[in-house]
Amino acid sequence: MSADGPALVVRRVGRLVFLFSLCLYATSAGGSMATDIMTYEVTKNIIEQRSVAMSYNLYQMDAHRGVDGRYYAPYGIGHAIYSIPFYLAGRAAERVTGLDVGKAEALRKAAVAGGSTVAAAASVWFAFWFAWRLAGSLGAAVAVALSFGFATLFWPYSKFGFNAPLASLCVVGGVYGCWLGVRERRTTALVAGGVGLGCALLVRHELALVTLPVGLWFLLESRPRWDVFVRRSFLAGAPVAVALLGTAYYNVTRFGNPLDTGYLRDETAGFGSVWEGALGLLVSPGGSLFVYSPVLILGAVALAGLYRADRHTAILFGSVVFVMFAFYALLQHWDADRSYGARYLLPAHAFLCIPLGLWFRESRDSRRHRIALAAVLVSAIVQLPGVLVDFSKVGSTPETAGRTLQERRWNWRSTALAVNTRVSLELVPRNIGYLTRAVERPTPKPAEGLGRDFSHQFADSLDFWWLYLFHLGVVPAPVALILGAVPGGLAAWCVARLHHHLVT
Questions:
Q1: Phi/psi class of residue 365: alpha, beta or left (left: φ > 0; alpha: ψ in -120 to 50)?
Q2: Residue 84, Cβ neighbours under 10 Å: how many?
Q3: Residue 474 domain flag
Q4: How many CA atoms lie within 13 Å of 490's alpha carbon, on the beta-carbon side?
Q5: What is the pLDDT of residues 294-336, one digit of tens each?
């Protein structure tokens, strides 16, 4: 470690981890909105109309009709509010550049989707700090953070406009704040942790369930001092209570019922067999937690090891994973339907990655360290099909759209991973040919209808924003490559600086 103070070095390394993640995510970003176009509509109307209603009935569902006859998104307001600065940036870019790419408001939609890139990088940063506090090794904390960010589904979902990265940021940050507040007796950390959990509730209502494992953690750490338990619960619980009251008011103004988020009348949001859901989330080729993020298998083993080293923290992590797993297994659409892997469980990924810090802090020659490194490399390769190709595009082609729900869940050839892998193997050499002018670039299809985004126009493009600009004819191939190389080069610089801090 350098001559600077240890705390200063850790902060610098944490910033480098965040910057590296942000730059690499920015390099691989695509700009797809996927299904969270409803959030985009809410964000847009907050700015343009001073309203939280959508412009129209996006999915032609009467369940979204409010008491005033207008239509409202069934999601929490948190993601829409978070997206406001990104929407404003996209609108400013449209006005300054005059670019009209793809469908209407494409730059604004891409900017809102870019909010996931920032939220994902911030989540990796929190994972770094959590692993540092738990393992006490700077190298292990970096390895955990990058494993979480690039060897799990977190990487593909950093590209989409879904609320999963933001929900993960709130959950990981909230749990970390509560953990730190107890272990280091920091009142402000407890309050900040409660704010994080309250924000998680505002993003996805069901994430209020995460307060149960946190409450259990407070109880375990406070025994036998009940007064300490009550104080900690109040400090962290007050922001959650405010979020609950805010959500109840939001529901009343939209649907006339403090408990109705818009899902109560939505037949697609029902419950099913918990056994079928649990089996699917564990082993199905279409939605398994472990098929799409194989490193989490090792994380589960490491979590068992953490139980021997720090029983209460292992219970906290395991409880967060269990509560989320059990709830989503109960849903009829436990796989989030037409999603890339177990999207609903994305916030739980961190709590299976952080225990790997205990393996990474061992000598590089140790067997567990080598096994962990190999698992991370394999798992990172598994993410590439989801990074290279936008599943919201290839998942609705004539070849795949006709597959039944059961086929998409249980038939390997029909799953998102298989579809993306096949298309990636086709598109990578084809796009190299386009960029080198060995193959003539096809003319993009015209934008039509009220589709979710403009990605369907680019069936021949990999899902990178700078390649989209090339296919649109906005920039030539050399400029497109430079645009992609700039954040990639900054990421490489971060790697060099990280190496410097870890070896000196």
A1: alpha
A2: 15
A3: no
A4: 17
A5: 999 999 999 999 999 999 999 999 999 999 999 999 998 898 8
* 71 backbone dihedrals φ, ψ, rounded to 5°: -110, 140
Strand ranges inside 388-462, DSSP E: none
Q: How many domains does the chain have?
A: 1
CB contact at 8 A, 461 and 471: yes
Per-residue b or e along 214-236, where b marks 16 or more CB atoms closer than 10 Å to that residue's CB: bbbbbeebbeeeeeebeebbebb
The predicted model scores a pTM of 0.94
Percent of the chain with pLDDT over 70: 92
- Strand (E) or helix (H) holding 63: none
Q: Is residue 248 part of a domain?
A: yes
Q: What are phi and psi of 419, to 5 degrees?
A: -60, -50
Helix axes 37-48, 84-97, angle to 10 degrees: 80
Quick: pLDDT tens for 248-281: 999 999 999 998 888 777 766 778 889 999 999 9
Structural domain containing residue 378: 6-388
Q: What CA–CA distance (Å, rounded) separates 442 from 447?
A: 15
DSSP state letter for 54: -
Q: Is residue 415 part of a domain?
A: no
Helical packing angle, 274-283 and 311-330, nearest 10°: 120
Predicted confidence (pLDDT) per residue in 147-201, tens digit: 999 999 999 999 988 899 999 999 999 999 999 999 999 999 999 999 999 999 9
Of 287, 342, 282, 350, give the one whose Cα is nearest residue 318: 350
Between CA 140 and CA 145 the distance in angstroms is 9
d(CA 252, CA 148): 38
Q: How far apart are CA 369 and CA 357, in angstroms?
A: 10
3-state secondary structure of 424: helix
**SS3 (DSSP) at 415:** coil
The number of helix segments (H) and strand segments (E) in the chain equals 24, 0
The pair of three-digit structure tokens given for residue 49, joined into one six-digit string = 């109309």
- In percent, how much of the chain has pLDDT > 90? 66
Give how far the C-alpha of residue 426 lies from the chain's centroid of Cα atoms, to the nearest Å: 27
The span from the CA of 75 to the CA of 81, in Å, is 12
Structure tokens at 67: 């008491």
Coil/strand/helix, residue 3: coil
Give domain status of residue 454, yes or no.
Answer: no
